């Protein structure tokens, strides 16, 4: 049996460990080697990379994608898309979703892994449809979680709906590393028996279960597993690529990856890891095994950001209280899976509850929007008192929220004006207006300075 690998170091692994602070210049030199390794795909875009490029790295995310594509022409490039949220934290009109997907494919993306934080399939329909129309692979992702209302039967039904919608593969997205080996075996086996498309498993090492979970998923017939090159593996990131390759080859599985090339890749990333450890951007806390995550279910990227935020406020000592409050907030909100943007919303609300010393003294605008139904259908019942506090006598939405939105692309294009030099720029502005506008202004300033310098040199 053949098992294929998606390498996550360029996206989720560094997002989980160093809050997506890996600049293109750090990994540019190894891309051509990565293209020779034999990966099924390189997950390199989407998720928080887009925001981080504009906000922290002073990079154009579209240019970053084009550069990766130029150096990796033989390996499929993969991105993570939050359905109707695209890469932001709210729902966008359908015309914006379609344009974003079209430009993502034009700029180099081959596979789009599409999920909805609430597993509300209404919120991925447009993205799946446009991905297929653009000739890319639409991979539907199930946001895996545990709660009184989530079970194997519900995941099978979700996978069937995704396949019927046109998804060409189904990914079980275990963003918090809480799926145990037996659960992985049972879930993969059930999906293989009920849908015809390939099955992928994505997990994290947060709880220490990752390696066991992927091993049992392979035994159940999973087609692709997500792993990270070992220098950026473990902790809140994915299990190590080389370890799984070594173990699975011993067991007789057909693996295409070249172990010599993997060693070269890992040797390249070791000093990069050392640099981030020395600077403090890689906190050893996120490299440790944390079995408490089996309770609070916070995904790797959120945990590293939560640590960073509390550290910045000099409140890191409050982390245990925040982690204890998180499942209580989640229950109040109807047990949403803790994946972006729900993980941030629940985590921020739990933090606010702890720091204020009073539950729901301050309710974030995102949580209010969620309670109004603007993110989709809540998986379970909302806390009645909380709902009343936010809505009063108002009724929550029952339709798909995007159906209430006016087309947004042309309006945003007129708004940003000449600062945007392309449709891609307009999309950046739509997703992150403040960060994109600041980036465009800096870009203009750099051009002016470069021109002035060249004139002076000629003189």
For the largest sheet, list the strands in their spatial order: 1-2-3-4-5-6-7-8
Percentage of residues assigned to helices = 40-55%
Strand content: 5-15%
Shape designation: globular
Radius of gyration: 22 Å
- Give helix and strand order, one letter per element, not per position: EHHHEHHEHEHEHEHEHEHHHHHHHHHHH
Average pLDDT, all residues: 94
Q: Quickly count the helices.
A: 21
How does the helix and strand content classify structurally?
Answer: alpha/beta
List the helices and strands and how they pair.
Elements: E1 4-7, H1 12-18, H2 24-27, H3 31-34, E2 41-46, H4 49-57, H5 61-71, E3 76-81, H6 94-106, E4 111-115, H7 125-133, E5 137-143, H8 152-165, E6 169-173, H9 181-194, E7 199-202, H10 210-219, E8 224-227, H11 241-250, H12 259-279, H13 293-296, H14 300-312, H15 319-332, H16 342-356, H17 365-372, H18 384-391, H19 409-416, H20 423-431, H21 433-458
Parallel strand pairs: 1-2, 1-8, 2-3, 3-4, 4-5, 5-6, 6-7, 7-8
Helix pairs in contact: 1-14, 6-7, 6-20, 8-9, 9-10, 15-16, 19-20, 20-21
Notes on the protein architecture:
With 459 residues, the chain is of the alpha/beta class. 50% of the residues lie in helices and 9% in strands. The protein is built from 21 helices and eight strands. An eight-stranded parallel barrel has the order 1-2-3-4-5-6-7-8, surrounded by five helices. The longest helix is centred in the C-terminal third of the chain and has 26 residues.
């Amino acid at each position: 049996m053949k098992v294929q690998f998606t390498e996550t170091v360029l996206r989720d692994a560094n997002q989980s460990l160093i809050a997506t602070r890996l600049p293109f210049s750090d990994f540019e030199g190894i891309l051509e080697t990565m293209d020779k390794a034999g990966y099924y795909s390189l997950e390199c875009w989407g998720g928080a990379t887009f925001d981080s490029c504009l906000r922290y790295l002073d990079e154009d995310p579209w240019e970053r994608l084009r550069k990766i594509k130029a150096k990796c022409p033989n390996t499929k490039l993969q991105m993570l898309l939050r359905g109707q949220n695209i890469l932001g934290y709210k729902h966008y009109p359908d015309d914006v979703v379609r344009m974003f997907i079209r430009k993502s494919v034009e700029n180099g993306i081959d596979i789009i892994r599409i999920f909805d934080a609430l597993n509300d399939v209404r919120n991925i329909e447009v993205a799946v449809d446009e991905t297929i129309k653009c000739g890319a692979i639409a991979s539907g992702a199930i946001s895996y979680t545990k709660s009184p209302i989530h079970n194997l039967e519900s995941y099978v039904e979700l996978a069937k709906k995704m396949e019927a919608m046109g998804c060409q593969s189904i990914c079980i997205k275990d963003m918090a590393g809480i799926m145990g080996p037996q659960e992985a075996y049972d879930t993969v086996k059930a999906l293989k028996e009920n849908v015809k498309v390939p099955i992928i498993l994505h997990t994290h090492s947060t709880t220490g279960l990752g390696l066991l979970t992927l091993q049992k998923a392979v035994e159940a017939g999973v087609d692709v597993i997500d792993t990270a090159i070992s220098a950026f593996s473990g902790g809140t990131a994915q299990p190590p690529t080389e370890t799984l390759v070594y173990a699975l080859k011993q067991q007789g599985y057909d693996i295409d990856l070249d172990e010599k090339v993997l060693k070269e890749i890992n040797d390249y990333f070791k000093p990069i890891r050392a640099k981030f450890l020395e600077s403090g951007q890689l906190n050893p806390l996120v490299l440790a095994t944390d079995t408490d995550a089996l309770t609070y279910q916070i995904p790797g990227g959120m945990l590293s950001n939560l640590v960073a935020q509390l550290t910045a406020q000099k409140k890191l000592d409050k982390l245990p209280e925040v982690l204890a409050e998180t499942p209580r907030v989640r229950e109040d909100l109807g047990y949403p899976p803790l994946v972006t943007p729900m993980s941030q919303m629940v985590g921020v609300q739990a933090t606010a509850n702890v720091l204020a010393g009073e539950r729901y003294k301050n309710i974030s605008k995102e949580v209010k929007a969620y309670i109004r139904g603007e993110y989709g259908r809540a998986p379970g019942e909302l806390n009645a008192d909380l709902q009343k506090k936010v809505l009063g006598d108002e009724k929550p939405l029952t339709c798909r929220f995007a159906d209430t939105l006016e087309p947004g692309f042309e309006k945003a294009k007129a708004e940003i004006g000449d600062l945007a030099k392309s449709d891609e720029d307009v999309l950046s502005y739509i997703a992150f207006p403040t960060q994109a506008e600041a980036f465009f202004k800096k870009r203009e300033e750099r051009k002016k300075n470069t021109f002035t310098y060249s004139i002076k040199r000629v003189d």
